[in-house]
Write a structure and sequence with these properties.
Largest sheet: 8 strands, mixed
Protein name: Mevalonate kinase
CATH topology of the largest domain: Ribosomal Protein S5, domain 2
Number of strands: 12
CATH architecture of the largest domain: 2-Layer Sandwich
Mean pLDDT: 96
Helix content: 40-55%
Keywords: ATP-binding, Cytoplasm, Kinase, Lipid biosynthesis, Lipid metabolism, Magnesium, Metal-binding, Nucleotide-binding, Steroid biosynthesis, Steroid metabolism, Sterol biosynthesis, Sterol metabolism, Transferase
Number of domains: 2
Bound molecules: adenosine-5'-diphosphate, (3R)-3-hydroxy-3-methyl-5-(phosphonooxy)pentanoic acid, magnesium ion
Shape: globular
Order of helices and strands: HEEEEHHHEHHHEEEHHHHEEHEE
Low-confidence stretches: none
EC number: 2.7.1.36
Pathway: Isoprenoid biosynthesis; isopentenyl diphosphate biosynthesis via mevalonate pathway; isopentenyl diphosphate from (R)-mevalonate: step 1/3
Domain GHMP kinase C-terminal: 301-370
Structural class: alpha+beta
Radius of gyration: 21 Å
Length: 393
């Protein structure tokens, strides 16, 4: 018999999307990338049920909508994670055999990812109703997959009362914001981040880990595969960024695989490119530090504009992840003296344009209309938002 408290308990979690300022794809190859969170967020609501079922609603995935499965259906699978490996405090990769068994329930990789994380974290011991929706365009380079994983893992760990910190005061909600939400402590956030990385691996094979890190911790951070994340405690300077969605769908998994294959096949040609992108990321950090010291925004803006152009040229011309729609937006914004680069995996998806401090509302409307007339949707980004937020009712 579930106690009333548990049965009535509701866990609400949100996790931000992101933009990568510099270093996408190169970060998969071990170089430095810089990313910052967005105000667009994935939202998950988790409530208990007494039906011993998983009831799932994914309103943003029209081809799915909703689904319901008895928990026993998963527990009886040959490769259901159990025993020593199945310690929810020690994130583990999905067994390929188990993935194949999960893919008998759904052909959608994202849902199979959901079912893996649900099975691994909850052991399918309790029935839950789960609804996941998002402000983020899906598959557009703004980290929707990572925010999906981070929100889900944060919510499931909370709903199962699984805390790497043993449920410290912060994770008990000692420092709630005005909406009654709290950021989990660093120890619990690291657990959420590592589980989310396992989800990202299922989504697109060889993620660097930057997307789930910035969705977990928020603000802005640098990332390398070797050293992991380093949060920029002072955030980033007040850059004005316009996000434009090409509305061209693409597969992060395929784009990432293509860059890896090109790097392995043409190592002597691509390594210098990756090293230059690493230099761009490091130069961006140096510019941020210089701005902190001298507040010379014009100097910062000029350097950022050059680095945007360089990184875009290298991504498109050398890594091969450009697209004609991206080139079109680069051209439209350049005609207005602005500089644009793709963000995320490229091949369509979203681009980011560096607005000038002097770009006034009339110029911005003129730019957005030119982009809209060309078939693109654009909006000024709010960056540096908090990472995963949890509200337990
Ligand atoms: N709101 C959502 N609802 C359901 N699935 C989602 C949602 N957001 C992301 N996903 C999953 O993430 C996948 C997109 O991941 P990816 O190709 O990496 O694009 P992105 O650049 O947005 O991270 C989708 O195909 C879907 O499986
Ligand atoms: C291309 C890459 O650098 C970022 C992928 O971003 P997104 O999934 O397109 O939002 C891959 C990675 O770092 O995992
Ligand atoms: Mg993604």
């Amino acid at each position: 018999m579930i106690s009333n408290i548990e049965e009535d308990r509701q866990v609400c979690v949100s996790a931000p999307g992101k933009i990568i300022l510099f270093g996408e794809h190169a970060v998969v190859l071990g170089k430095t990338a810089i990313a910052t969170s967005l105000s667009l967020r994935a939202k998950i609501v988790i409530t208990r049920n007494t039906e011993n079922k998983l009831n799932l609603e994914l309103p943003d995935l029209k081809e799915f909508g909703s689904g319901s499965w008895p928990l026993e259906e998963f527990r009886k699978l040959n490769d259901f994670p159990k025993g020593d490996i199945a310690d929810p405090l020690k994130p583990f990769e999905c067994n390929p055999e188990f993935l194949n068994q999960l893919l008998t329930f759904t052909s959608v990789k994202g849902i199979a990812t959901f079912l893996f994380l649900f099975s691994a974290i909850t052991q399918c011991t309790k029935g839950f109703n789960i609804k996941l929706s998002s402000d983020l365009p899906i598959g557009a380079g703004l980290g929707s997959s990572a925010s999906f994983c981070v929100g889900l893992c944060g919510g499931l760990l909370e709903a199962m009362d699984i805390y790497a910190c043993g449920k410290c005061d912060q994770c008990k909600g000692a420092h709630k914001n005005s909406d009654g939400e709290h950021n989990p402590c660093t120890v619990q956030s690291d657990l959420i981040n590592l589980w989310s990385l396992q989800g990202e691996k299922l989504m697109h094979g060889t993620p660097s880990g930057i997307d789930n890190a910035v969705s977990t911790f928020g603000k802005a951070l640098t990332f390398t595969r070797r050293a992991g994340y380093k949060i920029l405690d002072r955030g980033i300077p007040p850059l004005r960024i316009l996000i434009t969605n090409t509305r061209v769908g693409r597969s992060t998994k395929i784009l990432v695989e293509n860059v890896i294959n090109r790097s392995q096949k043409y190592t002597d040609l691509i390594d210098p490119v990756s090293n230059l992108i690493d230099t761009i990321s490091m130069q961006c950090l140096a510019c941020f530090e210089r701005y902190e010291a001298d507040s010379n925004f014009d100097e910062l803006q000029s350097a950022m504009e050059l680095m945007f152009d360089m990184n875009q040229s290298l991504l498109s011309g050398c890594y091969g992840v450009g697209h004609s729609s991206i080139d079109n937006i680069v051209s439209i914004t350049k005609s207005m003296g602005l500089h644009t680069k793709l963000t995320g995996a490229g091949g369509g998806g979203c681009v980011i344009t560096l607005l000038k401090p002097s770009t006034d509302s009339q110029q911005l409307e003129q730019l957005k209309k030119a982009l809209s007339d060309a078939g693109y949707e654009s909006w000024e980004a709010t960056i540096g938002d908090p990472g995963v937020l949890i509200k337990s009712l």
